[in-house]
Amino acid sequence: MPAHGAAPAKASGGREPRRGGESTVNIGIPKERRPNEYRVGLSPVGVQLLAAAGHPCFVERGAGLGAGFSDEEYVRAGARIVYSTEEAYGRAQLVLKISRPTTAELEWVPPGQVLAGFLNLAVTHPGKVRTLLEKKVTSIAYEQIVGHDGSLPVLKPLSQIGGRMAAQIAATALQNDKGTRGVLLGGVPGVPPAEVVIVGGGVVGENAARAFAGLGAHVTVLDQDLGRLQELSTLFRDQIVTAVSYPHLVARACEYADVVVGAVMVPGERTPLVLPRSVLKRMRPGSIFIDLSIDHGGCAETSRPTTHESPSYVEEGVVHVCIPNLPGVVARTSTHAFLNAARTYIELVVRHGVEEAMALDPGFARGVATHKGEVRNLSRVDFPAAQKG
Hints:
The chain is of the alpha/beta class. The protein is about 30% helix and about 15% strand.
């Protein structure tokens, strides 16, 4: 039953989640507070799985509405509804989020809590990371968890979604009423299709290529890894062009592009700037640049975050679209896909606790960004070396 007006229980005073014998883990699912973030940290299906295992789940009222999940669905799944974000944090030993906490939320995080989400701490304000360190919060960055095959299993489905959304964005952005080139991605008989250049051949780049090629665009993918380019060439049956991303080849490809997509990421680090201003200057006036790396700092010298309300700006004659958290506006798809990928790791933590989970799964350990007052698995230049673990 919902916890109507119940006073928030204090967190466990640093006791990390561990299920041993009769013990359980209190799990908090707060409502996301960032603009245009409609996803939720756990769906009713996820709550049902954890509640059935004996773990109380405290869901903030309305947390799932953006993704199409009502409070009643959560109650039927076994959750208790709480009526403030502060209470969702205060009752929990483990908090499951999507985006990293806002400054206000950090005030509600109790010392020693375990906090999981797509935290992107390598590009957040250092003061926020310092707060996590001072409170000895264990922060689990989903985007840094590494699978047994070397992939990023929790980030992967959201990268797939973001890559595919790039084609939707570009198709509209290329219209004349958007002040751009007036080009149809797929062309028509007798008129060539749009030229699309994708910098980065990982999961994001592959899915962007799939979506653009599916709409009939002429697609070129550049990446540093020749083996990966060979995989893509085989996967697409030579229907896309691939090239090693030497700077002069990147510049040349961008010069003739109608759309350039930035799809570069290094886990736990700020995205490298692979597109200097000089490259953007050489692009066609009215062409489109979509930076899918913006969550990790952006891969172009001219990139800065935009919003869904104001998605673009023009610099060097190029229309820039740099919207963080693109999957947040297809929240139902994203939340279901996220649970499919993250369930294994969430269950690992509630069954074994963070310390044992790190020992059991080194790939999971790569996702632990702060623990016991130390920075781990983050490449940052603004922390004293003594703080790095």
